[in-house]
Amino acid sequence: MQEAGLLNQSTLVTYFKLQGLSVNRKVQVAMFVMVLILYVLTLIGNILIVITITYDRRLHTPMYFFLSNLSFIDVCHSTVTVPKMLIDTWSEEKLISFDACVTQMFFLHLFACTEIFLLTVMAYDRYVAICKPLQYMTVINWKVCVLLAVTIWTGGTIHSIALTSLTIRLPYCGPDEIDNFFCDVPQVVKLACTDTHIIEILIISNSGLISVVCFVVLVVSYTVILVSLRQQVHKGRWKALSTCAAHLTVVTLFLGHCIFIYSRPSISLREDKVFSMFFTAVTPLLNPIIYTLRNTDMKNALNKLMCRKERKETK
């Protein structure tokens, strides 16, 4: 009878209420306009990068292969949360079903964890290219690129399944209000009507540890790169420094959020929504800005693609 009662309690919550970004209507409208612009620019910029790399044979190199993967992930990552948030701006209740919430959590962690692994792989790619240029095509060949891509996607999937499984096994019988504008594991676990101390430790051990370890690996990689740049000529040094600085900017903003959110107990802070906004709407836009506007090869390829399109339209 006790187990049956617990089962009935665990099925009481069929919908969660999302608090959104703000209760102030004017702030909500302003955020809607800003986030909509950021999302549209994210889609256009990242999709354009994928198309450009696909059609320009000169960009069929390991570095741009990983960059196209990063653009694809950024499109998917922002699409998991932003459209729902935009729709909820005009809704009073901001409801999300339990199944939709679980689905959102699964894909959020799938794309986020895969991107963390991909950024780490991209750092290794830059390390080999700068520190061991003569061995680059041997170490980072196409077979290795495909193997690394399969590995990071598999790792992200396993990570997401593990976290989602831990979350859906908990009983939810109220409260049902999530203190954010999307479903995430820490906020949802906090609503379970049972002791979640062990689950929170597992979340920190999983997501938090992955973020911290990858960040340390990235810092060590770039430290080695910077040391090796001391032996290069002035022009090559500044070009390599520019590439590393761009990569570090994306890494710091992205992993900074993950470390802040997942390396502590499931408690709500005022800064959470700000970090989440950067995580879901701002960071995915940095990819096309940093890797396209500051990259001569990408700008030349984009111009070539635009010229080809104009020629087709005039015929």
Low-confidence stretches: 1-10
Radius of gyration, in angstroms, nearest whole number:
22 Å
Q: Name the overall outline.
A: globular
Structural class: mainly alpha
Instruction: Kindly report the name of the CATH homologous superfamily.
Output: Rhodopsin 7-helix transmembrane proteins
Estimate nothing, just give the exact number of structural domains: 1
H-E order: HEHHEHHHEHHHHH
Largest sheet: 3 strands, mixed
Which strand order spans the largest sheet, edge to edge or round the barrel? 2-1-3
- Give me the number of helical elements: 11
Give the class-level CATH name.
Answer: Mainly Alpha
pLDDT averaged residue by residue = 82
CATH architecture: Up-down Bundle
CATH topology: Rhopdopsin 7-helix transmembrane proteins
What fraction of the residues are assigned to beta strands by DSSP? under 5%
What can you see in these coordinates?
Belongs to the G-protein coupled receptor 1 family. This is Olfactory receptor. The chain crosses the membrane at residues 29-51, 63-86, 106-124, 144-162, 209-229, 241-262, 274-293. Putative odorant or sperm cell receptor. The protein is mainly α. The protein has a single domain (17-297), classed as Rhopdopsin 7-helix transmembrane proteins. The chain contains eleven helices and three strands, in the order αβααβαααβααααα. It is globular. The N and C termini lie far apart (77 Å). Residues 1-10 have low confidence and may be disordered.
